[in-house]
Amino acid sequence: MYYRDKLLNFIILLSLTINGFIIDLNVLAIDLKLTGSVLSNLARESGCQVVKDGTMLKAELRAPLVFPALRVGAGKKK
């Protein structure tokens, strides 16, 4: 799964670079035969802001990058 996610992140960032740092994730999801939610999670992990505009899921890469906060799980109970 690691290499698959890494490749998908590369595809997302490459398409962002080509399209002026804004892409429609639904179109990309159809091309890659994935769901929009999978691509939106990967786009958020890459630093994109994902906005739902009607039926479109738009990912935009802005500067400065803001990465999502890490979730810390509960410690082991004894």
Describe this structure in words.
By secondary structure, the protein is of the alpha+beta class. The protein has 3 helices and 3 strands; from the N terminus they run H-E-H-H-E-E. A 3-stranded antiparallel β-sheet has the order 1-3-2. Strand 2 (49-53) and strand 3 form a beta hairpin. The termini are far apart.
What Rg is obtained from the alpha carbons, in whole angstroms?
Answer: 14 Å
Low-pLDDT stretches: none
Structural class: alpha+beta
**Cα-to-Cα separation, first versus last residue:** 32 Å
Question: Judging from the principal axes of the Cα atoms, what is the shape?
Answer: globular
Strand percent estimate: 15-25%
Q: Give the proportion of residues in helices.
A: 40-55%
The overall pLDDT, averaged over residues, is: 88
Q: How would you characterize the largest beta sheet?
A: 3 strands, antiparallel
Task: Give, in spatial order, the strands making up the sheet with the most strands.
Answer: 1-3-2
Count of β-strands? 3
Present the secondary structure layout:
Elements: H1 2-18, E1 22-24, H2 25-32, H3 36-45, E2 49-53, E3 56-60
Antiparallel strand pairs: 1-3, 2-3
